[in-house]
TrEMBL record:
Organism whose genome encodes this protein: Cotesia congregata
Name of the molecule in the record: Olfactory receptor 8
Gene Ontology molecular function terms on file: odorant binding; olfactory receptor activity
Domain of life: Eukaryota
GO cellular component annotations of the record: plasma membrane
Family annotation (Pfam families): 7tm_6
Classification lineage: Eukaryota, Metazoa, Ecdysozoa, Arthropoda, Hexapoda
Localization (cell): Cell membrane
Keyword Zinc-finger found: no
Length: 401
């Protein structure tokens, strides 16, 4: 069944709907789409500036307070978690913008793949891949925003007001340190700072979700293309139809072209996410360790809300790094399986010596195609296990503090 142009546009819009929703509030969307104009790019620059300004004025006082003012080592460790989360997300934010041209190329590649679809069966395979990517994004967003919103709103409210040594009422905030510059306890200054912390939290959580979404949506698309390629291999030796140019030569040409496109796309995904994955691995190792430590502290203090919040954040960050490692594993397995699928067809029944044209497909499939952390560490399920074990080692070190 031939797909109509209206269905093509609908499918592309469905595929990129979440991408647009996530990248637009970050000001990135205008730089990765061909449909943007000068006005939209200027507004995106303004959004990026506002987001950066909000993150800076919100969390930097926390860093100053942690480094120069706080003397309690346990409190310093407690502040290292949110401050580290801020720094890593800032890095991811600017790395995503740095790789905006590659993201744009990947989006154009994705759209071109949709335009190449000619059968309803292939279309359904691509839609299935899109749904997997969307579901991964939704799970990441649910985990991240549940814990993050609770940290920025529920925890400070639940903690309640306290009295300092001057018998002044101190209302808690998600990030301390604003009192260095002005009295943040007065109304409406306190309410404004509280709201600013909440907005900053939303920006940080959106960055985390956006990085996970880009990895999920592109990797699942590549896997969908592999499934379509395998289907083409299975149909390679079916009866020819010269009237429609459906010959073995044309089928082989289509298979080789599709395989090259998959390899190029996989390489682009790895380059696009190289720095993001490096930051993700390093940050997850430390922040997961800190969250485990926070859970132990709050358990000893019997703070139920704090325990639940930290557990949600721990689940979210563990799920996040697991997704990156799982995507790297699946991407490698799927690309490698092309060679096996090519070898398993009845290539020896092909007329003449046409089977030799598939030898390069088998050979090139032996090269690994997976996500890497800065080109130094291959992301796989084995890597995920090592990250968790390393965080537990650091946890044992923290327990001695």
């Amino acid at each position: 069944m031939i797909i109509k142009n209206s269905e093509l546009l609908e499918d592309i819009n469905y595929n990129l709907k979440l991408t647009k929703w996530i990248l637009k509030p970050l000001g990135v969307w205008s730089f990765v789409t061909r449909d943007s104009n000068l006005t939209s790019k200027l507004s995106s620059v303004l959004i990026i500036f506002v987001n950066s300004f909000i993150m800076f004025i919100t969390v930097m006082p926390c860093g100053i307070h942690m480094i120069f003012r706080e003397t309690d080592q346990v409190v310093k460790i407690i502040l290292m978690g949110p401050f580290g989360f801020y720094l890593t997300n800032c890095c991811k934010y600017y790395f995503i913008m740095y790789r905006s041209n590659i993201i744009k190329n990947c989006l154009n590649h994705l759209k071109a793949d949709w335009a190449r679809v000619k059968t309803e069966e292939d279309r359904q395979k691509m839609i299935k891949s899109v749904n997997v990517g969307r579901n991964i994004t939704k799970l990441c967003a649910i985990f991240m925003f549940s814990g993050g919103v609770s940290y920025h709103t529920v925890m400070p409210i639940w903690k309640g007001s306290t009295l300092n040594e001057l018998n002044e009422t101190i209302r808690p905030l998600a990030y301390p340190g604003n009192e260095i510059f002005f009295n943040c306890q007065k109304t409406p200054i306190y309410e404004f700072i509280f709201f600013l912390h909440f907005i900053c939290g939303l920006v940080l959580l959106t960055i985390t979700t956006g990085a996970c979404h880009l990895a999920a949506i592109f990797a699942t698309h590549a896997c969908g293309q592999v499934d379509i390629l395998k289907s083409q291999l299975e149909n390679l030796l079916k009866k020819e139809n010269p009237k429609t140019n459906d010959t073995i030569d044309n089928r082989i040409a289509s298979i080789i072209q599709s395989h090259v496109r998959i390899l190029d796309f996989s390489k682009s995904i790895e380059i696009m996410l190289r720095e993001v994955c490096l930051v993700e691995v390093g940050a997850s190792t430390m922040i997961i360790c800190l969250l485990e430590y926070y859970c132990m502290i709050e358990w000893s203090n019997s703070e139920t809300i704090n325990i639940l919040t930290y557990l949600m954040l721990l689940t979210a960050l563990t799920f996040n790094i697991f997704i990156f490692c799982y995507i790297g594993e699946i991407l490698n397995q799927q690309c490698s399986s092309i060679g096996e699928s090519t070898y398993m067809i009845n290539w020896y029944k092909m007329p003449g010596n046409k089977g030799k044209y598939l030898m390069l497909t088998i050979a090139s499939s032996r090269n690994q195609r997976q996500l890497t952390a800065g080109g130094m560490l291959d992301l796989s399920l084995h890597s995920f296990g090592n990250i968790i074990k390393t965080s537990l080692v650091y946890l044992n070190m923290l327990r001695t503090v």
